[in-house]
Amino acid sequence: MPELRTVTTHCPYCALQCGTQLTRERRGVSVRPTDFPVNRGGLCQKGWTAPSLLEVDDRIRRPLVRRDGALQPASWDTALEVIADGIRRVRGAHGPDAVGVFGGGGLTNEKAYLLGKFARLALGTSRIDYNGRFCMSSAAGAGIAAFGLDRGLPFPVTDLAGADVVLLAGANPAETMPPLMQHLRAPDLVVIDPRRTATAEQAALHLQPQPGTDLALVLGLLHIAVVDGWTDADYVRERTTGREQAWQRAMTWWPERVERVTGVPVTAQRRAVRMLAEAERCYVLTGRGAEQHAKGVDTVSGFINLALALGLPGREGSGYGCLTGQGNGQGGREHGQKADQLPGYRAITDQAAREHVAAVWGVRPELLPGPGLSAYELLDSLGTEDGPRALLVFGSNPVVSAPNAGHVTERLRSLELLVVADFVPSETAELADVVLPVTQWAEEEGTMTNLEGRVLRRRRLQVPPEHARSDLEVVHGIATRLGEPGHRYPTRPREVFEELRRASAGGRADYSGISYDRLDAGEALHWPCPDAEHPGTPRLFLDGFAHPDGRARFVAVDHRDAADATGPAFPLTATTGRVLAQYQSGAQTRRVAELAEAAPGGFVEVHPDTADRNGLAEGALAKITSPRGSAVAEVRLVPTMRTDTVFLPFHFAGESRANLLTGDALDPSSRMPEFKVSAVRIEPHREV
Ligand code: SF4
């Protein structure tokens, strides 16, 4: 493919997928925002500096194979042979589930699709999952239970601008996706967040609960809505089922009890409900703050119950949605790189789905393995009797991003074969036996699906470095060395997408009517889009929900404590999150000079009184310890923090890793880890 001077594409980072135009200038690549609806000429600092990713100093430029304890340059043939040999050896000794695959929510739709097919056919393993499990799985589970379908936002982002009130529960878009804020200027914001974030600063009302108590809070809001007569009786009767049990649970959460548990005053609870209920047009949105809990699904169900009681979902100008985080957080969960799913967002246990996908793949359905292990369980099992002895990692950096990171690092070290495909030497790549240099973003073609279910074209501006290959070529190379027919693993993105269309046909996320030609012609296509004439579906549920009876479900939920209890040894709660200038594990953004300057390292936000009590000063180093381990971070005194809570961003490596503190408690259904609540103590750090 020839190099182009300019292309219209999208930012490489978050789920907003801001529209950009890239131009090759004499001094490198320049970027400018386009008028794409989600960003309308805006970009955040990450988007403006994205071209620097194409020039990072330590780009991986050759395959690397570990010899005599060190990673050393090797040819692609040698690297792929080492991988194939390792897989054959491990599989021969321990069976197909001894090989695992760990994918990523930043991979294109084509890569996510081919990875799932590769794992199940070429490797024959059930052990595939991806880092999106850590991101959106609780909202996905709750959305499917309530509506029969999960699409982050079942309406376009631009609809938010027409709202009177928007409730943001555990979301901080002013830092995580700033261009979204232009759609939130007109509505009054009600923000639920234990921190006074940049978003909370702009809110008409900020509720600041203790971390881990969002579910108690939203049960209390539902209680007030019901008791004070704010519910939409006609909507509830005509469009929902399951009200009785769900409302009954909320009846025990009277406002004073909620204040005792959450710390949110009764007056603020009442004001929040009044604002939401009196609004003509109103949205309830959740983010990771509400979702990353061992009760994440129930917490999101609590917010959906409130939205249903107020008559919001499936009504024009109102609704419920989840602000997905990763670049392809939406598409990444639809095409089969998840342990329990096949393409088309179908359950892997569904016999009809297995038959459909097996027919597209040209194999018998019984050849497809069953459900595997969720992301944390997969990582936790590495190197154990029943766990994988070999792991292939694509587009992920679990050494930094996984919970209980010290333990996960040890499990990765215990593998007989660790393969990492990446374009930068991430902390996980540093542990690998084989590192494969892959193409990135502006060097490849493909599609992404943004947080509103709109399928977008990622376009190639320039040729990749000499020895870099796309993840699709990597999959093809390993599969063929394992004896698979090459045509089963196409390397051209357009060809993979054509197959993905057929595999998704009739599924929840039906892409069968979407094509590169339609996208390149400028059509705005949101799935489901079941045929080539279909205009796509920007707004879901207006005529009914996706359950067979067309009604949404209230789900009866109740509050329970977080897995970690504070006490004398660990008197504080640590919560984690993101900052404006960094993205996810930071493997990419920590290498961009402007971003590294803006957010150079780990820090811990502490209330001044808490700092006083613990002998901490602004700018000094603190040691934060949980039952899992310790992290070291620079103290920032923040008077708006709760005195019982500290906050750490999770983008940083080494001893600043916030995930050295987080635990392995998982949501019973989504298997989401409890990133947002860890019991800790904090003290001055003393060098030893
Ligand atoms: Fe990129 Fe997200 Fe920033 Fe937009 S908001 S420029 S997609 S990181």
UniProtKB/TrEMBL annotation:
Q: What Pfam families is this protein classified in?
A: Molybdop_Fe4S4, Molybdopterin, Molydop_binding
Which Gene3D superfamilies would you find in this protein's record? 2.40.40.20, 3.40.50.740, ADC-like domains (2.20.25.90), Dimethylsulfoxide Reductase, domain 2 (3.40.228.10)
What SMART domains does this protein's entry cite?
Molybdop_Fe4S4
Enumerate the InterPro entries for this protein.
Asp_de-COase-like_dom_sf, MoPterin_dinucl-bd_dom, Mopterin_OxRdtase, Mopterin_OxRdtase_4Fe-4S_dom, Prok_molybdopt-oxidoreductase
User: Which keywords belong to this entry?
Assistant: 4Fe-4S, Iron, Iron-sulfur, Metal-binding
Instruction: Tell me where in this chain the 4Fe-4S Mo/W bis-MGD-type domain is found.
Output: 4-56
Xref: PANTHER family: NADH-QUINONE OXIDOREDUCTASE SUBUNIT G, RESPIRATORY NITRATE REDUCTASE
What is the protein name given in its UniProt record? Molybdopterin oxidoreductase family protein
The keyword Nucleotidyltransferase is assigned to this record = no
User: Is tRNA-binding a UniProt keyword of this protein?
Assistant: no
